[in-house]
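Progress note, sequence design subtask.
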C-alpha cells in the first residue's frame, strides 16, 4: 500500500502580505506553516500506516526551497519519502497551473491513493484537489472527516463527509483523491525527542521544472489561465475567551468545556 499526500506549506496567515502589482501573495521572508487540512490528510495517512506498517507514505509539496526545514520536520514523523517541487519559475502559478505541475509528477508515480486537504488558508478556492483528480482521471471526494481503515486495504474508500454541516457516508473505489478537512479524528504525531535533529536528507528529493519537463510558458504567471483582480481578507468571527484559575472550579470548567465540544 502506498499513499501520496499533497502538502501545502503556507505563509503564517497572521503576517500575510499581498503584492498589488503582481496580484500574488508575498511569500518571501514569511514564516511557513503546514496548511491545517493537509496536516489532517497526512495524519490520516500515518494512521493507516499504524494499521499496516508496510504502508509507504510519501509527501509531495510545491514550495520554495526555504521550506526545506519545515518539510524535514514532516519527514521526521515516520514519513517514508518527501518530494519538494520547487522552481522560481513557479511563482504566480494559479490553481490550474499548480494542478498541472503536481499532476506532471504524479502521472509517473504508482499510488494506491492520494490524500490532500480540502481547503487552504491562503487561498480557500479548493480547486487544486479536484483539478489534480481530473488530470489524473481519478474520482475525488472532499470535506472528509474520517476514513474507515478496514475496507481501505480492500480498495474501497469509505468516508464520513461534512456536507454543509451534515455528516454523510460515502464509498468510492480506489485509487482516488481523498481530500480531508481539519478534523479531531486525526492528530499529527509528535517528533520523538531523539529525532529532533535526525538527518532526513536521504528521504528527500527536490525537483525543478527541468526534471518535470515543463517550459517557462507552461508555468507561473505566463502559463496561468486566471488573473487575480481583487483580494480580500476572510473575516473570522471573534470567539469569546474564558479565563479560569488553577483550582477545582477552574478544572471543572475546563472539563465541562472539553466534554461539550466532544474532546472527552
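Output:
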Amino acid at each position: 500500500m502506498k499513499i501520496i499526500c499533497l502538502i501545502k506549506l503556507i505563509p503564517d496567515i497572521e503576517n500575510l502580505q499581498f503584492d498589488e502589482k503582481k496580484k500574488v501573495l508575498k511569500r518571501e521572508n514569511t514564516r511557513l506553516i503546514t496548511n491545517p487540512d493537509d496536516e489532517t490528510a497526512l495524519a490520516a495517512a500515518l494512521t493507516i500506516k499504524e494499521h499496516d506498517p508496510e504502508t509507504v507514505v510519501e509527501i509531495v509539496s510545491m514550495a520554495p526551497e526555504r521550506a526545506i526545514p519545515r518539510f524535514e520536520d514532516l519527514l521526521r514523523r515516520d514519513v517514508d519519502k518527501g518530494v519538494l517541487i520547487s522552481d522560481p519559475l513557479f511563482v504566480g502559478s494559479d490553481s490550474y497551473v499548480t494542478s498541472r505541475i503536481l499532476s506532471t509528477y504524479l502521472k509517473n508515480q504508482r499510488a494506491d491513493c492520494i490524500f490532500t486537504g480540502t481547503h487552504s488558508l491562503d487561498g480557500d478556492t479548493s480547486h487544486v484537489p479536484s483539478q489534480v483528480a481530473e488530470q489524473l482521471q481519478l474520482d475525488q471526494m472532499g470535506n472528509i472527516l474520517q476514513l474507515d481503515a478496514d475496507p481501505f486495504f480492500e480498495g474501497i474508500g469509505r468516508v464520513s463527509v461534512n456536507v454543509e454541516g451534515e455528516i454523510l457516508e460515502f464509498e468510492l473505489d480506489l485509487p482516488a483523491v481523498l481530500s480531508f478537512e481539519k478534523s479531531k479524528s486525526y492528530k499529527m504525531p509528535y517528533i520523538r525527542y531523539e529525532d529532533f535533529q535526525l538527518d532526513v536528507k536521504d528521504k528527500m528529493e527536490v525537483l525543478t521544472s527541468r526534471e518535470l519537463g515543463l517550459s517557462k510558458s507552461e508555468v507561473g504567471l505566463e502559463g496561468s489561465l486566471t488573473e487575480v483582480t481583487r483580494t480580500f481578507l476572510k473575516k473570522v468571527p471573534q470567539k469569546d475567551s474564558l479565563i479560569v484559575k488553577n483550582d477545582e472550579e477552574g478544572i471543572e470548567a475546563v472539563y465541562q468545556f472539553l466534554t461539550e465540544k466532544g474532546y472527552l
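DSSP finds eight helices and 13 strands in the chain. Work on this subtask will continue into the next period as scheduled.
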